[in-house]
Structure formats: structure tokens, C-alpha cells
Amino acid sequence: MGDLLQIHAQIQISGLSRDGYLMSEVLRLCALSPFGSLDYARNLLYRVENPISSSWNHVIRGYSGSGSPKEAILVYLAMRKNEKKPTYLTFPFLFKACAALSALEEGRQIQVEIVKHGLDSDVYVQNTLIHFYGCCRQVVYARKVFDFMSLRTVSSWNSILTACVENLKYGDSIVLFNRMRVCEFEPDEATLVILLSAFTELGNLSLGKWIHSQVIVKGFSMTCRLGTALVDMYSKCGALGFAGLVFERMSERNVWTWSAIILGHAGLVDEGYQFFNDMEHVHGIKPMMTHYGAMVDILARSGHLVEAYRFIETMPIEADPVVWRTLLSACGIYDANGNSWVGTKVKERLLKMEPKRIGNLVMVANMYAEVGQWEAAAIVRRVMKDRGLKKMPGESSIELEGSIFRFYSGDDAHVDFDRLNWMLNAMNLHMNRTVMGYAIPVAVLLPGDCCTSLQAFFSVPLVPSQFFILFLHFSFPVFSLVFGMAFSGCLVHLFPDQSNWGIHERHPSSLAFLDCHDPSLPDFDHRHHDSHSCGLIHHLAAIFPSFSTVV
User: Fold this and answer.
1) Strand (E) or helix (H) holding 291
2) In the 8-state DSSP scheme, what is residue 493?
3) pLDDT at residue 326, rounded to an integer
4) Phi and psi dihedrals of 51, rounded to 5?
5) 197-207 per-position pLDDT tens digit
6) What letter does residue 168 receive in the DSSP assignment?
7) Least confident residue range of 123-127, 261-265, 489-493
8) Domain boundaries, the chain
9) Which InterPro entries match (predicted)?
10) Distance between CA atoms of residues 42 and 22, nearest Å
11) In angstroms, rounded to a whole number, what is the distance separating the alpha carbons of residues 503 and 357?
12) Is the pTM of this model over 0.90?
């Protein structure tokens, strides 16, 4: 900044301060360079005599990407007060600032401004407008802007795809991508990363592999961003072998790459520890909260509750609520007797940090209910009711032959509800008779959540022959499972929606593998029971070798 001050002083001494273009360059350096100062740039802007539009744009741009995006809007208001006409470069940064603030009303007013100045058809402005509506969770408006565009670029498609993915409209993103290909637009790296994010959340390994094939066929460089997206997709879809191959072949890795590979090894404690230690001691990358949370996730979902608690206590940084919530959900799975001091301490800590978060209260109420402490569960439920807190209805979906079918908790309107319910009851009663330690679930919610993109692999022929059942819970996610068993003769992918079960990170529910002969008859023969799904795909491959060929 010292050099800039000297340059400014020389300009003043030389009498060149009235040169609008020269002062615009000084303002650009002050507002956008790493060694500049936004506050100095704004004060200088207000003192410059008759600054040109680009000078205002530089300061607006600087604030839009700073920690004070509101200042960008205030500078724009000062610009209009000084009767300076905005350009097509002014509004994109204003929309960026409004997106960062989730300032929907202000953004709409700025949209009126672009119409007034005849810039509503500018593709650059429209792309950022789509991004703004997506950040404000207004996908319908984003789609309207996109549909009315007379000219589109690849960035336009990326903007609407991002809006859909960030607002959980994964099916819409796939439809739009198909439309993009029909319109003969070639996807770029950003497109592939966005789609990988969608396929990861859907648990769609086959589409994720297709994207990987396009990376190879189209000759894309395996950049850090693209490689991380592939590692994340393979890890969350259970294909750890592919995740490891991509990870090893990446020439550059960042903290997010390490997060993806560590989280992918949930349940594999030794491997997770090795990646975590190598990250800092071998590669010199200092762990962040995400990485510490990943290690807690690995320890907790493996049943090492005490070790996970002590790991949190010895962290060099204070654990955030997500980390404590991760451990609490595991306590709901492994703390069957309800007397663990870990569960008690974690509940107290989490409720102190986030006393009004609905997900925390739901987990605590369920933990009480699962061990028969009905009065304590009722008290927590009463607190939720008194505070006006309501749990969002859960959702699960299943992909069959390229179509996605959704099921919602409490919804019995499905045309095959009676048949599915009968099958589910038959399975549940049989497990109660034959599986040691199994009891019909009585809690309203799952004792823990499933993976963000839990992918269950089945072999499910319709004709009477052997098939495998992955039993999750007597609840709406299982209706997706039973639906797939009843109406599909191919691979079934089950995607429970963990976001509405009060859990942030990924944890497995209790699993039991059954072998039966006819989906219409409760005539099952128990073969194997596993208390949890640590390294789900590895378990499947070990128990049923044919699954290794699927992965």
C-alpha cells in the first residue's frame, strides 16, 4: 500500500488528478490488488473530481467480493446520486453482493435498474442474475431468467445448473444437462464439477462414471478442482478403489481433496488416521475443522465413542456444533443402554451451543425414546412444541431405470402403498423372529442418519429366486427400498434424505442382510447380520463376492 500512496502523491504533485482514466487505474489497484485498501479506494473515489464509470465499478467490484458486500450497494447508491450511468460491468458485481447477503428485495430492485438502462438482454448480466436468484433459493425466478434469454453461453448453462444443484433440484439439473447437449453446447470443467456434485448427492455412481469417461475422452486436464469432485463422488458412492486411484493420480491436491478422501474412508479407522497424519506431516497441509470433523466421523461411526470424544477434547481448535452433532448421532446408534457418559456430555454440550436447533432436539428425543425413557422424550418434544419448532418431513428417493421416485414421511397416497406396507410388515415381523437382538423399531425417527448419498446395491429379480435385502428402518426410506424390490429387476439405488433427520454429517443406520426366496412370502432364511455399515461396499464384497464386480 505504501507504493500506491507514493504514486498517488506524485499524481497530485504533477497535477494529473483530473485525468479520469489515470485515477481509474489508481482506484483499480487500491480496490482490487492484494496490497490495496478498499476503504482508501472508496474515500479516494469520493474525492476525485468527476470520476468515470469504471472507477465506480472497480470499488463496487472490490466490495462485492469482500467481507463487507453491503458496501458495494452503498457505493452504487452514491454513484446514482452523482448521476453516473452504470454499465454492463456494474450490475454483475451488485448481484454478486446481493447474493452474498441473500438480499432478495435489493436484488429485485437492481433488476429493475438493468431494465431501465437497457441491459436486461446482456448475457453477462443475465448470468449473474441467475446466480443471484439461485443463491436466494428462488430457482423458479432463475429458471424464468434463463428461459427468456435470447442468447446463451456455457456460463449461462452452468449458472442455471448450479442454481438447481444448490437448491437440491438434482433431477432438474439432469434434464437441463440433457437439454444443453441437445443444443450442442460442449460442457467445460465447471459443468462437469457441477454435475458430479449432483450425481454425488443422488448417489448415482453410473452417471458419475460417465462424467469421468467424458473427462478422459474430451481430454480434460485432471485439475485439483475436477479431481476433488471425482474423489468425493466415488467416495460417497462407496467406490473407494476408484476414489483412491483418482487421488493418487492427482498432481495437485488441496484441503478439500484430503477432506473427500478421509471422509470416504469412514469405518476404516486405521486408513483414515493414516491419511489424516500424512496430510500434515508428509504433505505439510494444516488440518482444518473439516478434517477434524472427518476423523470424528470415522471414529464415531466405527463405535469408538470414547476415542472420538477425547479426540475432540484434544483438538487445537474449538469444535463446532457439526462435530458434536456427528458424535451425538453415533451415540444414538451404539449407546444402546443409554448410560454412556459420552452421550450425556455430548448432549449437554450441543444443547448449550445450539439450544433452538430442531435437529438437535429431535436426536435427543429419539435417544431417550429408544431406551424407554418416555417421560424425558416427552419433555423434549414439549419443549419443541412450546418453541414452535417443527421438523421438516423426511424424504427418500430411489432410481429405477433412469427415473427417480420420491417418498415422503407421512404420505400414504402412493398407488401401491398397501402392497408396499404389507411387504414391509412381513419383513419386519420375520426379522423380529429370526435375527438375534433385532426389535421392531418404535422411535419416530432413525437412531442415526444414513450417508449423504447412501447407495445400496441389490440383486433383485422379480421371479422367485434369491435376492438380498438391506434393511434400514421401518420408515419412509424403506418404502423406497421395497418399491425398488417390487418393481425392478435390476440394480436398485436407495437415497435416504439425511438433511431432514436432524443430522448434518453422514452416519450409517443399523444394517441386516437377509436372503429370501420370494418377495411375496414371509419365508426368509437368515444368513448374515452386521451391526453397522462401516466400509459398506467392503462388507458387501466380503460377504457376497459378486458385488465386487458391480463396484
Assistant:
1) helix 289-301
2) E
3) 80
4) -65, 145
5) 998 888 788 88
6) T
7) 489-493
8) 395-550
9) E_motif (IPR046848), PPR_At4g14850-like_plant (IPR046960), PPR_rpt (IPR002885), TPR-like_helical_dom_sf (IPR011990)
10) 16
11) 11
12) no
